[in-house]
Specification:
alpha/beta, 24% helix, 10 strands
Length: 288
Amino acid sequence: MVRILKLLKSHIILFAIVCLLAIRKSFKEVKITKIDRFVPDMKYILVWTNIYGIEEEGQKYFISKNCKHINCYITKNDSLFNDVRYFDAILFDGQDVSRDIIALPQLRSTMQKYVFVAKESSDNFPVCNKIYDNFFNWTWTYRYDSTISYHFITVFNYQYIELGNRFLWETYMKPIDKTLKSQFITKSKAAVIFLDKCKSRSKREDVIDKLKGYLSKYNLTIDIFGPCSDKKCKRKNMKPCLWRLKKTYYFYLAFEDSISLDYITDIVLYAYNNNAIPIVYGGAQYDK
């Protein structure tokens, strides 16, 4: 009887071992990989699509601009970690997003910031695909209400404090001095514009044609430089054209190629930097 009990006990133990091995085999092994985040407080930013102006990797941009916080690391290497969810922010360029459905991250963390980056007008590059509804949670654009506001022009006061759009124009401004006034002696023509696009979303070419008609009554003309005219102006070397603006023309037509809220490029500075008065056309609130 004792022998039978011992034999039964050994069979029960053997059966339990077999069951345990069978159960363990039925479960898929999960490989746990340790993610090295390098510096604990570093914020890692992944550039998902090409963004103009961001070419180098690392902390250089933040250090060279004397940013208040430099614990940010920019990279285009989506394999820096084993999982894209470990990036704190991912940047998507508005032009790429608007053109087509691009390959998007398959996994996303609830803590990540997906940033929509747009330096070009939304009128030229609209985002219409519904896949991007509620996709981005931060914006970095020319709009003043963006999470991060980007501008072609920055206004400072004499103390070199950035004013943004919060400043007021002086009610009483001092007249220009004699030295500056003497530089206007050589001016003889009404207005000029440098165009790199002959057709635009804003239809600025139609506005120019109408202005030409009005000015012709007073024997005044508008000169056009660029591929739309026989007067050439190379964008890579603007110095000869800017010299002509400074010496010859009273006004510069700072006409944007598209109309979009808050969108104003640095073309208005062609006038300000060369002793001319800008005539503006665009979607920005120019008084601000």
